[in-house]
Amino acid sequence: MAHEAGQHVRHRSRPEWGVGKVEGTNGESVFVRFGDQLKTIKISFAEQFLQPVTAEELAAAKPAARAGPAVGHIAQCPECGKALTRNADGEWRACPNCS
User: Fold this and answer.
1) How far apart are alpha carbons 38 and 29 in whole angstroms?
2) b/e map 26-63, b = 16+ CB within 10 Å
3) Which DSSP letter does residue 16 get?
4) Which residue segment(s) compose the domain that 32 sits in?
5) Is 96 a member of any domain?
6) CB of 15 within 8 A of CB of 57?
7) What would the pLDDT profile of 37-88 be if each residue is shown by its tens digit?
8) How many domains does the chain have?
9) Is residue 82 one of the residues assigned to a domain?
10) What is the spatial distance between Cα 94 and Cα 81, in angstroms, rounded to a whole number?
11) Any residues with CB less than 8 A from the CB of 11 and at least 6 apart, and which?
């Protein structure tokens, strides 16, 4: 199953994370925002652990589980190419590997 930006998913082994929104992929990983946390999940694990959320499940989810800044793409570090994360205000922050 391919994971596309904007798709809502649930992590099978982390139900406490609630509903997440796929923000993008880079060929190796899927980036999913669960609440205010951006999680990086290897594609091989994403196939096993991420399951799509139906429209009915999404409507029933807590609003906090669907919150988070809308993102059309994943910003990448210009030095190492890894995905950047966002701070609590929704702004891009420095790469944790290169900073």
Assistant:
1) 12
2) eeebbbbbbbeebbebeeeebeeebeebeeeeeeeeee
3) G
4) 8-66
5) no
6) no
7) 999 999 999 999 999 998 888 888 755 444 455 555 567 777 777 777 766 6
8) 1
9) no
10) 12
11) 17, 20, 32, 34, 39, 41, 49, 50
